[in-house]
Design a protein that fits this description.
With about 325 residues, the chain is an alpha/beta fold. Strands 8, 9, 10, 11, 12 and 13 form a 6-stranded mixed beta sheet that branches. A 5-stranded parallel beta sheet has the order 5-4-3-6-7. A hairpin with a 5-residue loop joins strand 8 and strand 9. The radius of gyration is 19 Å and the shape is globular. The N terminus is likely disordered.
Length: about 325
């Protein structure tokens, strides 16, 4: 992996921040990100490692990238192997995923992929659209002799947007029209939320997390979580936006907790109960939190869905957070 998050170790790496790089303005679609095609094969999918051609309708899909499995499943394709990036357990599907498996996939590794285990599944397509983007990882996977759909051309590690992931997976599995419909549905849901809660427009926000060591961090402007909030019309707080980093977040020292202040401060726990945050005097002293504008994602399912940067995950998170976010933003007016 080219970039790691020094602040968070262990499970935080597994729950690493992602997606949202170059997120478009709310309600718009980036050039080239619209799912297209008629689902016919062969189909060629541009990736950071070159064009990849899928010769025929895949029957045995292995989904290794973050949220690749649930994206494929949402399009009507059941992977035979999947990575459980959010450590959900079981079949790797959280309650936010609407479609379910008829036959649970074999759960595979995330950061480290067991090539023999993947090969044993006899895949005819490997999805790795939101992953490290390492050439070595890609080259290892291509040794299996099947199409590997890596991160998008011009993309960065773990920052594949939900639109690009949907487009790439949709094209590779022959479901571009289904992908287009899913994209339109989620975009409409965000548009409706913006219309119903105009106080969100232009509200500054800090999206952060605390790890098991009690360390805080704020997600940077190209992370998936901020992409969700930007879809609602919110903007990254300038003191975070101006931080120099090539990672997914910036550490927030206990001496500088004021950096978490914004019109709205969103906080989630990484691999721990949120009570540690709720009871932390430093958290409670953040001006926005003290003023009742802190949104603590205490429901683990909501927190994970928020982190998934998938269509199903964001539908779920949107329904369960927009009211809180809007109430907090209203207090800043």
């Amino acid at each position: 992996m080219r970039r790691t998050l020094p602040l968070f170790a262990g499970l935080l790496i597994v729950l690493m921040l992602l997606a949202g790089c170059g997120s478009p303005e709310p309600g718009t679609t980036p050039s080239g990100a619209t799912p297209s095609g008629d689902g016919a094969f062969p189909v060629t999918v541009p990736t950071a490692f070159g064009d990849v051609t899928v010769p025929e309708q895949p029957r045995r899909v292995v989904a290794l990238g973050w949220s690749d499995a649930e994206t494929a499943l949402a399009l009507g394709v059941e992977p035979v192997g999947a990575a459980d990036w959010l450590a959900v357990g079981g079949d790797g599907l959280g309650p936010w995923v609407q479609a379910r498996y008829t036959t649970p996939p074999q759960i595979l590794g995330t950061l480290e992929v067991d090539l023999e285990a993947v090969a044993a599944l006899d895949p005819d397509l490997i999805l790795d659209t939101r992953s490290s983007g390492d050439r070595e990882r890609h080259d290892r996977l291509t040794q299996l002799g099947v199409p590997v759909i890596g991160i998008p051309a011009g993309g960065e590690n773990y920052k594949t947007t939900w639109r690009d992931q949907l487009r790439m997976v949709g094209a590779a599995v022959g479901k571009p029209q289904e992908a287009a419909r899913a994209q339109a549905d989620l975009e409409q849901r965000f548009a409706d939320a913006r219309a119903q809660h105009p106080q969100l427009q232009g509200a500054t926000v800090v999206s952060g997390a605390r790890n098991t060591l009690g360390e805080y961090a704020a997600y940077t402007g190209d992370s998936g979580r901020l992409a969700f909030l930007k879809e609602l019309g919110m903007v990254n707080a300038p003191q975070i936006e101006s931080q120099r980093t090539d990672g997914f977040s910036v550490p927030i020292s206990r001496e500088r907790m004021n950096l978490l202040d914004a019109d709205v401060t969103v906080m989630q726990a990484i691999s721990e109960d949120t009570s540690a945050i709720a009871n932390d005097p430093l958290w409670k002293a953040v001006p926005s939190v003290a003023a009742g504008r802190g949104v603590l994602l205490s429901d683990r399912d909501v927190s994970q869905a928020f982190s998934s940067a998938s269509v199903d995950g964001w539908r779920y998170a949107l329904d369960r957070t927009v009211g809180q976010l809007a109430d907090a933003a209203a207090k800043a007016r």
